[in-house]
Protein backbone atom coordinates (compact mmCIF):
# COMPACT_ATOMS: atom_id res chain seq x y z
CA UNK A 1 0.00 0.00 0.00
CA UNK A 2 1.63 3.20 -1.15
CA UNK A 3 0.88 6.83 -0.61
CA UNK A 4 -1.16 6.75 -3.83
CA UNK A 5 -3.92 5.05 -1.92
CA UNK A 6 -5.99 7.18 0.42
CA UNK A 7 -5.33 6.78 4.16
CA UNK A 8 -8.74 5.11 4.55
CA UNK A 9 -7.87 2.54 1.91
CA UNK A 10 -4.58 1.87 3.66
CA UNK A 11 -6.25 1.37 7.04
CA UNK A 12 -8.79 -1.05 5.57
CA UNK A 13 -6.01 -2.90 3.76
CA UNK A 14 -3.96 -3.16 6.96
CA UNK A 15 -6.98 -4.60 8.80
CA UNK A 16 -7.46 -7.13 6.01
CA UNK A 17 -3.78 -8.11 5.92
CA UNK A 18 -3.11 -8.45 9.65
CA UNK A 19 -5.66 -10.29 11.74
CA UNK A 20 -6.17 -8.95 14.24
CA UNK A 21 -4.54 -5.64 13.38
CA UNK A 22 -2.39 -4.30 16.20
CA UNK A 23 -2.84 -0.53 16.38
CA UNK A 24 -0.14 1.48 18.17
CA UNK A 25 -1.08 4.56 20.14
CA UNK A 26 1.37 7.38 19.41
CA UNK A 27 1.41 10.64 21.30
CA UNK A 28 3.27 12.59 18.62
CA UNK A 29 5.17 12.38 15.35
CA UNK A 30 8.35 11.00 16.88
CA UNK A 31 6.42 8.22 18.64
CA UNK A 32 4.91 7.41 15.24
CA UNK A 33 8.39 6.89 13.84
CA UNK A 34 9.22 4.60 16.76
CA UNK A 35 6.06 2.52 16.26
CA UNK A 36 6.81 2.21 12.58
CA UNK A 37 10.34 1.08 13.41
CA UNK A 38 8.86 -1.62 15.66
CA UNK A 39 6.83 -2.94 12.71
CA UNK A 40 3.31 -1.66 13.40
CA UNK A 41 1.11 -1.29 10.34
CA UNK A 42 -1.40 1.16 11.80
CA UNK A 43 -1.26 4.03 14.27
CA UNK A 44 -3.68 5.67 16.67
CA UNK A 45 -3.90 9.18 18.03
CA UNK A 46 -5.45 8.95 21.46
CA UNK A 47 -7.66 11.71 22.80
CA UNK A 48 -6.25 11.08 26.24
CA UNK A 49 -2.76 11.14 24.74
CA UNK A 50 -3.27 14.59 23.18
CA UNK A 51 -4.85 15.97 26.34
CA UNK A 52 -2.32 14.42 28.76
CA UNK A 53 0.91 14.63 26.79
CA UNK A 54 0.52 17.80 24.73
CA UNK A 55 -1.56 19.87 27.14
CA UNK A 56 -1.05 18.34 30.60
CA UNK A 57 -4.82 18.03 30.90
CA UNK A 58 -7.12 15.16 31.89
CA UNK A 59 -9.13 13.25 29.28
CA UNK A 60 -12.40 15.09 29.83
CA UNK A 61 -13.11 16.55 26.41
CA UNK A 62 -11.02 19.69 26.97
CA UNK A 63 -9.04 19.62 23.74
CA UNK A 64 -10.40 21.06 20.51
CA UNK A 65 -10.76 19.69 17.00
CA UNK A 66 -8.12 22.16 15.79
CA UNK A 67 -5.61 20.92 18.33
CA UNK A 68 -6.21 17.27 17.45
CA UNK A 69 -6.08 17.99 13.70
CA UNK A 70 -2.74 19.74 14.16
CA UNK A 71 -1.34 16.65 15.86
CA UNK A 72 -2.70 14.52 12.99
CA UNK A 73 -0.93 16.70 10.40
CA UNK A 74 2.37 16.38 12.23
CA UNK A 75 2.11 12.59 12.40
CA UNK A 76 1.08 11.99 8.80
CA UNK A 77 3.80 14.36 7.60
CA UNK A 78 6.46 11.88 8.73
CA UNK A 79 4.88 8.47 8.19
CA UNK A 80 2.72 6.79 5.58
CA UNK A 81 1.15 4.42 8.12
CA UNK A 82 -2.63 4.86 8.36
CA UNK A 83 -3.73 6.80 11.43
CA UNK A 84 -6.97 6.17 13.33
CA UNK A 85 -7.97 9.21 15.37
CA UNK A 86 -9.92 9.50 18.59
CA UNK A 87 -12.78 11.86 17.72
CA UNK A 88 -14.32 11.72 21.21
CA UNK A 89 -17.97 12.79 20.78
CA UNK A 90 -17.33 14.72 17.56
CA UNK A 91 -17.16 18.19 19.14
CA UNK A 92 -20.79 19.08 18.62
CA UNK A 93 -24.04 18.30 16.89
CA UNK A 94 -24.75 16.93 13.41
CA UNK A 95 -23.26 19.67 11.28
CA UNK A 96 -20.21 19.89 13.54
CA UNK A 97 -19.71 16.10 13.46
CA UNK A 98 -19.66 16.22 9.66
CA UNK A 99 -17.17 19.08 9.85
CA UNK A 100 -15.02 17.04 12.25
CA UNK A 101 -14.89 14.14 9.80
CA UNK A 102 -14.02 16.43 6.92
CA UNK A 103 -11.34 18.26 8.93
CA UNK A 104 -9.63 15.11 10.19
CA UNK A 105 -9.81 13.50 6.77
CA UNK A 106 -8.26 16.54 5.09
CA UNK A 107 -5.61 16.59 7.84
CA UNK A 108 -4.60 13.10 6.69
CA UNK A 109 -6.35 10.73 9.12
CA UNK A 110 -7.47 7.32 7.86
CA UNK A 111 -10.48 7.16 10.11
CA UNK A 112 -11.90 8.28 13.42
CA UNK A 113 -13.96 6.87 16.23
CA UNK A 114 -16.91 8.64 17.73
CA UNK A 115 -18.37 7.55 21.03
CA UNK A 116 -21.92 7.43 22.34
CA UNK A 117 -21.23 9.46 25.46
CA UNK A 118 -22.75 12.86 26.09
CA UNK A 119 -20.64 15.89 25.12
CA UNK A 120 -19.16 16.23 28.62
CA UNK A 121 -17.32 12.95 28.06
CA UNK A 122 -15.12 10.91 30.37
CA UNK A 123 -12.41 8.33 29.91
CA UNK A 124 -14.09 5.04 28.98
CA UNK A 125 -12.61 3.32 31.99
CA UNK A 126 -13.86 5.79 34.61
CA UNK A 127 -17.17 5.69 36.45
CA UNK A 128 -19.94 8.22 35.89
CA UNK A 129 -20.31 8.01 32.12
CA UNK A 130 -23.59 9.20 30.62
CA UNK A 131 -24.75 8.06 27.20
CA UNK A 132 -26.83 9.65 24.50
CA UNK A 133 -29.79 7.60 23.25
CA UNK A 134 -29.27 5.01 20.53
CA UNK A 135 -31.18 7.24 18.11
CA UNK A 136 -29.00 10.24 18.88
CA UNK A 137 -25.85 8.21 18.34
CA UNK A 138 -27.23 6.86 15.06
CA UNK A 139 -27.76 10.46 13.97
CA UNK A 140 -24.18 11.24 15.01
CA UNK A 141 -22.93 8.40 12.81
CA UNK A 142 -25.12 9.42 9.89
CA UNK A 143 -23.72 12.96 10.18
CA UNK A 144 -20.19 11.53 10.20
CA UNK A 145 -20.94 9.56 7.04
CA UNK A 146 -22.23 12.76 5.40
CA UNK A 147 -18.97 14.52 6.29
CA UNK A 148 -16.79 12.07 4.40
CA UNK A 149 -14.71 13.54 1.62
CA UNK A 150 -13.27 10.09 0.85
CA UNK A 151 -15.72 7.20 0.95
CA UNK A 152 -12.98 4.90 2.25
CA UNK A 153 -12.39 7.04 5.36
CA UNK A 154 -13.20 4.75 8.28
CA UNK A 155 -16.07 5.72 10.56
CA UNK A 156 -15.74 3.69 13.73
CA UNK A 157 -18.52 3.87 16.31
CA UNK A 158 -17.44 3.41 19.88
CA UNK A 159 -19.94 2.25 22.40
CA UNK A 160 -19.36 2.97 26.06
CA UNK A 161 -22.64 1.22 26.91
CA UNK A 162 -21.18 -1.96 28.45
CA UNK A 163 -20.23 -0.18 31.69
CA UNK A 164 -23.55 1.67 31.89
CA UNK A 165 -26.20 -0.66 30.42
CA UNK A 166 -24.51 -4.09 30.19
CA UNK A 167 -23.33 -6.40 27.42
CA UNK A 168 -26.66 -7.12 25.70
CA UNK A 169 -27.51 -3.43 25.43
CA UNK A 170 -24.02 -2.60 24.18
CA UNK A 171 -24.32 -5.23 21.44
CA UNK A 172 -27.79 -4.02 20.47
CA UNK A 173 -26.48 -0.46 20.22
CA UNK A 174 -23.50 -1.62 18.12
CA UNK A 175 -25.84 -3.35 15.65
CA UNK A 176 -27.82 -0.12 15.30
CA UNK A 177 -24.62 1.85 14.78
CA UNK A 178 -23.60 -0.45 11.93
CA UNK A 179 -27.06 0.06 10.45
CA UNK A 180 -26.51 3.82 10.69
CA UNK A 181 -23.33 3.50 8.62
CA UNK A 182 -20.47 2.68 10.98
CA UNK A 183 -17.71 0.67 9.28
CA UNK A 184 -16.23 -0.70 12.49
CA UNK A 185 -17.14 -0.91 16.17
CA UNK A 186 -15.01 -0.01 19.20
CA UNK A 187 -16.32 -2.13 22.06
CA UNK A 188 -15.18 -0.12 25.06
CA UNK A 189 -14.18 -1.56 28.44
CA UNK A 190 -15.59 -5.09 28.17
CA UNK A 191 -14.78 -7.30 31.13
CA UNK A 192 -13.54 -10.58 29.66
CA UNK A 193 -12.40 -12.49 26.59
CA UNK A 194 -15.76 -14.31 26.52
CA UNK A 195 -17.55 -10.98 26.25
CA UNK A 196 -15.37 -9.96 23.31
CA UNK A 197 -16.17 -13.30 21.64
CA UNK A 198 -19.87 -12.75 22.16
CA UNK A 199 -19.66 -9.16 20.92
CA UNK A 200 -17.67 -10.01 17.79
CA UNK A 201 -20.20 -12.70 16.90
CA UNK A 202 -23.16 -10.40 17.42
CA UNK A 203 -21.91 -7.56 15.22
CA UNK A 204 -21.56 -7.62 11.43
CA UNK A 205 -18.54 -5.31 11.36
CA UNK A 206 -14.91 -5.50 12.49
CA UNK A 207 -14.67 -5.08 16.27
CA UNK A 208 -11.84 -3.30 18.07
CA UNK A 209 -10.69 -4.22 21.58
CA UNK A 210 -8.98 -1.57 23.68
CA UNK A 211 -6.08 -3.05 25.65
CA UNK A 212 -5.46 0.05 27.71
CA UNK A 213 -3.59 -0.61 30.94
CA UNK A 214 -4.91 -0.09 34.46
CA UNK A 215 -8.50 0.02 33.21
CA UNK A 216 -11.56 -2.23 33.38
CA UNK A 217 -10.49 -4.72 30.72
CA UNK A 218 -8.02 -7.56 31.39
CA UNK A 219 -4.87 -7.43 29.27
CA UNK A 220 -5.56 -10.12 26.68
CA UNK A 221 -3.06 -11.26 24.08
CA UNK A 222 -3.42 -10.58 20.40
CA UNK A 223 -3.70 -14.35 19.84
CA UNK A 224 -6.55 -14.69 22.34
CA UNK A 225 -8.42 -11.73 20.88
CA UNK A 226 -7.89 -12.95 17.33
CA UNK A 227 -9.31 -16.35 18.20
CA UNK A 228 -12.30 -14.62 19.78
CA UNK A 229 -13.04 -12.87 16.47
CA UNK A 230 -11.71 -9.42 17.36
CA UNK A 231 -10.25 -7.69 14.31
CA UNK A 232 -8.34 -4.72 15.76
CA UNK A 233 -6.38 -4.53 19.00
CA UNK A 234 -5.54 -1.09 20.36
CA UNK A 235 -2.73 -0.04 22.71
CA UNK A 236 -3.64 3.64 23.08
CA UNK A 237 -1.26 4.78 25.81
CA UNK A 238 1.17 1.90 26.44
CA UNK A 239 4.26 3.71 25.17
CA UNK A 240 3.16 7.00 26.76
CA UNK A 241 2.82 5.34 30.17
CA UNK A 242 6.28 3.79 29.81
CA UNK A 243 7.86 7.05 28.58
CA UNK A 244 6.26 8.96 31.43
CA UNK A 245 7.55 6.59 34.10
CA UNK A 246 11.03 6.66 32.52
CA UNK A 247 11.05 10.46 32.29
CA UNK A 248 9.99 10.91 35.90
CA UNK A 249 12.71 8.55 37.02
CA UNK A 250 15.28 10.53 35.03
CA UNK A 251 14.19 13.87 36.47
CA UNK A 252 14.18 12.49 40.01
CA UNK A 253 17.59 10.87 39.61
CA UNK A 254 19.11 14.06 38.19
CA UNK A 255 17.81 16.02 41.16
CA UNK A 256 18.92 13.42 43.67
CA UNK A 257 22.30 12.46 42.26
CA UNK A 258 23.30 15.57 40.34
CA UNK A 259 24.47 13.46 37.39
CA UNK A 260 23.02 11.20 34.71
CA UNK A 261 25.85 8.65 34.94
CA UNK A 262 23.56 5.85 36.14
CA UNK A 263 20.91 6.68 33.56
CA UNK A 264 22.95 6.57 30.37
CA UNK A 265 22.43 2.84 29.92
CA UNK A 266 18.67 3.28 29.61
CA UNK A 267 18.79 6.19 27.15
CA UNK A 268 18.36 6.22 23.41
CA UNK A 269 21.71 7.35 22.01
CA UNK A 270 22.19 10.31 19.71
CA UNK A 271 23.01 7.93 16.88
CA UNK A 272 19.82 5.91 17.47
CA UNK A 273 17.78 9.09 17.51
CA UNK A 274 19.33 10.24 14.24
CA UNK A 275 18.72 6.88 12.67
CA UNK A 276 15.01 6.96 13.51
CA UNK A 277 14.74 10.54 12.23
CA UNK A 278 16.73 9.89 9.05
CA UNK A 279 18.90 12.80 10.22
CA UNK A 280 21.86 12.02 7.98
CA UNK A 281 19.66 12.01 4.90
CA UNK A 282 18.33 15.46 5.81
CA UNK A 283 21.90 16.62 6.40
CA UNK A 284 23.03 15.30 3.04
CA UNK A 285 20.21 17.23 1.41
CA UNK A 286 21.31 20.41 3.17
CA UNK A 287 24.96 19.83 2.18
CA UNK A 288 23.89 19.16 -1.41
CA UNK A 289 21.84 22.33 -1.42
CA UNK A 290 24.68 24.48 -0.04
CA UNK A 291 27.19 22.92 -2.51
CA UNK A 292 24.89 24.11 -5.30
CA UNK A 293 24.82 27.52 -3.68
CA UNK A 294 21.07 27.33 -2.93
C1 LIG B 1 -8.84 4.97 24.15
C2 LIG B 1 -9.03 6.23 24.90
O1 LIG B 1 -10.25 6.83 24.50
C3 LIG B 1 -7.94 7.25 24.56
O2 LIG B 1 -8.23 8.46 24.55
O3 LIG B 1 -6.80 6.81 24.36
C4 LIG B 1 -9.02 6.04 26.44
C5 LIG B 1 -7.82 5.29 26.95
C6 LIG B 1 -7.59 5.33 28.44
O4 LIG B 1 -7.94 6.31 29.10
O5 LIG B 1 -6.96 4.41 28.95
C7 LIG B 1 -10.33 5.37 26.85
O6 LIG B 1 -10.40 4.14 26.84
O7 LIG B 1 -11.28 6.09 27.17
MG1 LIG C 1 -10.31 8.81 24.19
Automatic annotation (TrEMBL):
It comes from the Bacteria. CDD domains: ICL_PEPM. GO terms for molecular function: magnesium ion binding; methylisocitrate lyase activity. It catalyses: (2S,3R)-3-hydroxybutane-1,2,3-tricarboxylate = pyruvate + succinate. Substrate binds at residues 46-48, 123-124, 158, 188, 210-212, 241, 270. Pathway: Organic acid metabolism; propanoate degradation. GO terms for biological process: propionate catabolic process, 2-methylcitrate cycle. Its EC number is 4.1.3.30. Keywords: Lyase, Magnesium, Metal-binding. Its cofactor is Mg(2+). Mg(2+) binds at residues 86, 88. The keyword Magnesium applies. Homotetramer; dimer of dimers. Catalyzes the thermodynamically favored C-C bond cleavage of (2R,3S)-2-methylisocitrate to yield pyruvate and succinate. Involved in the catabolism of short chain fatty acids (SCFA) via the 2-methylcitrate cycle (propionate degradation route). Catalyzes the thermodynamically favored C-C bond cleavage of (2R,3S)-2-methylisocitrate to yield pyruvate and succinate via an alpha-carboxy-carbanion intermediate. Belongs to the isocitrate lyase/PEP mutase superfamily. Methylisocitrate lyase family. This is 2-methylisocitrate lyase. It comes from Nitrosococcus oceani C-27.
